[in-house]
Specification:
The complex is a heterodimer. Chain A is an all-beta fold. Chain A has no helices and 11 strands. The model of chain A has no long low-confidence stretch (mean pLDDT 93). Chain B has a 5-stranded mixed beta sheet, with no helix packed on it. Classes of the chains: A mainly beta, B mainly beta. Chains A and B meet through strand 5, strand 9 and strand 10 of A and strand 3 and strand 4 of B.
């Protein structure tokens, strides 16, 4: 099993450009989520999905869109990149939404917006 | 959200046990206690979680106080690979998105 796979690992964008961060998991997990981590900080939830076709906003959703057309994939779209979106982005999945399950995280995408 | 309090940093010698404390005095009855660690330049890694009883797995042990207002993560024999930031997190499926609210964590330094 590959676990949670994120691509790309690194990306540099110009202000105003758009892009999609990819996240795929092969564990048949229902629950998937996106976090961002700014330097020296903990992770903050951007968007999450409790199953295919269902998404919802987290703490910091502005400037990001998500969709969940399949169980395996949960892409994160930056609509118009801003320097404030420079961060490391982590995708995570869990068997289900319940608190009695651990999360598996991807290795992250380091994004710089100039 | 119920909050957790952890020391900023701890040091340990290799092959000695490490006890990482976490206070969560406002924990609710349905909050699970989760521990994750983050090695440099990597994503967080699940370590262990529990509700009321102490828990053991291949990575660590989790000791939960009887009143659940505090817990301790125990690494039985620290290795250099255990140097990381350790996060104590309360997780409740009733919270929006069942999110994991990460605080500052405890940075563990393991000395050879």
């Amino acid at each position: 099993n590959a676990g949670v796979t994120q691509t790309p690992k690194f990306q540099v964008l110009k202000t105003g450009q758009s892009m999609t961060l990819q996240c795929a998991q092969d564990m048949n997990h229902e629950y998937m989520s996106w976090y961002r981590q700014d330097p020296g900080m903990g992770l903050r939830l951007i968007h999450y999905s409790v199953g295919a076709g269902i998404t919802d906003q987290g703490e910091v959703p502005n400037g990001y869109n998500v969709s969940r057309s399949t169980t395996e994939d949960f892409p994160l779209r930056l609509l118009s990149a801003a320097p404030s979106q420079t961060s490391v982005y982590f995708c995570a999945s869990s068997r289900t939404r319940g608190s009695n399950y651990g999360y598996t995280f991807g290795s992250g995408t380091r994004l710089t917006v100039v | 959200d119920a909050k957790t309090t952890q020391p900023n940093s701890m040091e340990s010698n290799e092959e000695e046990p490490v006890h990482l404390p976490c206070n969560h005095s406002t924990i609710s009855g349905t909050d699970y206690i989760h521990w994750y660690r983050q090695l440099p330049s990597q994503g967080p890694e699940y370590v262990i979680h529990g509700l009321t009883s102490n828990v053991n797995n291949r990575m660590a042990s989790l000791a939960i106080a009887e009143d659940r207002k505090s817990s301790t993560l125990i690494l039985h024999r620290a290795t250099l690979r255990d140097a990381a930031v350790y996060y104590c997190i309360l997780s409740n499926e009733a919270a929006a998105g069942n999110k994991l609210t990460f605080g500052g964590g405890t940075r563990v330094l393991v000395k050879p």
